[in-house]
Write a structure and sequence with these properties.
The protein is mostly beta strands and 285 residues long. Helix content is 3%, strand content 64%.
Length: 285
Amino acid sequence: MSVPHYGDFGKSLNDLLSKDFPVGHAKLEVNTTTSNGIKFTVTGAKDNNNGAIVSEIKTKYSDKSRGLTVTEHWNAKNVIGAQVELQDAIAAGVKLDITGSIHPSNGAKNGKVAVEFKQPNIFTRSSVDLFAKAGPTIHTDAIIGSEGFLLGGDVAYSVNDAALQRYNVAVGYTTPEYQVGLHATNKFSHFTAAYHHKVNKTVEAGAKAIWNKAASDSVSIEVGTKYVLDNQTFVKAKIDNVGRLGLGYSQVLRPGVKLGLGGLFDTTRLHENVHRVGLSLALEN
């Protein structure tokens, strides 16, 4: 089996419950790729409540023969950033990742250097956050897997304080048909149990239960499903234990043009102005 990195633990369920619900904003995304492999992406999203527009332009260049990927971005808040990734150049399964950004107006900056090591049954990453407010911080996570079982952990260590800032643990079981997992985060104060099931080629279903023992004795539950109408169209729905209903619709109008519609409705207050809707349009050549 090929294990995911720690950040992608439970990704199938997270995508089911969060992606393709363009709620509360109108978003436009344009992707173009040049003949020599440079990809340009321009995004803009308008908040339906306050009218604020967030936009960004990004360029990405990949040289697969050298394992090199360079990404640059510049957003409307005047933050300029870059990322350089080098895969398998040092050794097989090793990836070097250097990321940084700067705000020219006030001089705020951040930078991170990371190293990944991946083999069929293990995926581990370590990084140093050079400009963290608390001083240099070392982040390390790892997942090991065998016969469908996954066990992972994540820690953050402050060099200045000589103390752990964060530690999390995850355990799960995965097959091509379904996945189950338990995630303990925020120093074992926040627990998530989840499952994702590919019922058949057209139907997916999943649910998660969350207990934050530091905030409440109650458990939050959310369930969702996806139904594929055809190769170009699918619909999604989700609902939680307080009655919030999410609906999503996605369709490829023509090659390179994808439309998404979404809404989040409070079923306990249907006659009040508390519902949110939105749309997204993605263009790609």
